[in-house]
């Protein structure tokens, strides 16, 4: 698993975020913070109208390096050329007439994490998004699912994208395998249960076949571990003993 995580970390570091004409230094800082939190690569700013590095750093604690090393270029084409990426993914919340393939975050994660090469994810301006000439340079368009309200600001959109990539890059550790109880041990537990019931008035004169079948079915469905069944048998042994000898002499039951 360590090798798998190393590979995923390398793939995430090869994902770069391109912000086109970002108007808010706070959004730039928020995007840089999301990138640092999730191990993404370089931040590129395309023609930012009023970039305030100090304000951006204030919004990006522990992510100042992303701000300080941000590449500033004049166009999306310059950003793509400078990054020398394998694939370019634009983002859009509205339908386009262009025939650019549409990806959801899961498709983006599968591609980034399981195919070779580097990726630039391009986010448009806060007010109107990417223009069609920029989308035309993209291999795919990422759409983040929302309700009809659809109100993600730029930093939120970067954070959702980066977090989704990180989530898919973290393999779930397999649950430890506990030895299951054998059919023979479960049958012995059923014997113990029936023996306890036989010492009460539960059965009367009825045969216990249907009860045995019910217990057998239930125990099989529970997928109990060996030690669980063994512990239950010990409890039933104590109950049977108490049923036979009655309460302790000191009056406890």
User: What's the story with the biggest beta sheet?
Assistant: 7 strands, parallel
> What fraction, in percent, of the residue positions are helical?
40-55%
The helix-strand sequence is HEHEHHEHEEHEHEHHHH
Continuous helix count? 11
Which spans of ≥5 residues are poorly predicted at pLDDT below 50? none
The CATH superfamily of the largest domain turns out to be: SPOUT methyltransferase, trefoil knot domain
Percent in strands:
5-15%
The figure for the number of domains is 2
Fill in the CATH topology of the largest domain.
Alpha/beta knot
Strand arrangement within the widest β-sheet reads 3-2-1-6-4-7-5
Mean pLDDT: 85
Tally of extended strands? 7
Radius of gyration: 31 Å
Calculate the terminal CA-CA distance, rounded to whole Å.
53 Å
The CATH level-2 architecture of the largest domain is identified as 3-Layer(aba) Sandwich
Give a verbal description of the structure:
This protein has 253 residues and is of the alpha/beta class. It has two domains: 10-168, SPOUT methyltransferase, trefoil knot domain (Alpha/beta knot, 3-Layer(aba) Sandwich), CATH 3.40.1280; 183-245. It contains eleven helices and seven strands. It has helices at 2-13, 25-38, 53-58, 64-68, 76-83, 105-114, 132-135, 154-168, 183-198, 209-222, 226-245; strands at 15-20, 43-46, 71-73, 87-91, 102-103, 119-123, 140-142. Strands 3-2-1-6-4-7-5 form a seven-stranded parallel β-sheet, with helices on both faces. Helix 2 (25-38) packs parallel to helix 8 (154-168). The longest helix has 20 residues, at 226-245. The radius of gyration is 31 Å and the shape is elongated. 28% of the residues are buried. The mean pLDDT is 85.
């Amino acid at each position: 698993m360590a090798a798998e995580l190393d590979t995923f970390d390398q793939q995430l570091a090869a994902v770069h975020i391109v912000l086109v004409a970002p108007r808010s230094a706070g959004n730039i800082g928020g995007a840089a913070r999301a990138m640092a939190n999730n191990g993404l690569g370089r931040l590129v700013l395309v023609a930012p109208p009023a970039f305030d590095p100090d304000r951006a750093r204030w919004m990006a604690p522990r992510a100042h390096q992303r701000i300080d090393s941000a590449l500033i270029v004049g166009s999306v084409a310059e950003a793509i050329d400078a990054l020398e990426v394998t694939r370019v993914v634009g983002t859009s919340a509205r339908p386009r007439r262009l025939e650019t393939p549409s990806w959801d975050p899961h498709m983006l994660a599968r591609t980034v994490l399981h195919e070779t090469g580097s990726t630039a994810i391009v986010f448009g301006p806060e007010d109107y998004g990417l223009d069609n000439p920029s989308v035309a340079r993209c291999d795919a368009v990422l759409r983040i699912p929302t309700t009809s309200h659809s109100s993600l600001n730029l930093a939120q959109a970067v954070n959702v994208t980066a977090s989704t990539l990180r989530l898919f890059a973290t393999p779930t550790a397999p649950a430890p395998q506990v030895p299951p109880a054998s059919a023979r041990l479960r049958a012995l537990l059923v014997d113990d249960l029936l023996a306890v019931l036989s010492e009460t008035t539960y059965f009367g004169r009825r045969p216990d076949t249907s009860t045995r079948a019910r217990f057998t079915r239930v125990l099989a469905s529970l997928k109990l571990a060996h030690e669980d069944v063994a512990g239950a048998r010990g409890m039933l042994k104590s109950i049977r003993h108490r049923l036979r000898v009655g309460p302790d002499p000191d009056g406890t039951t």
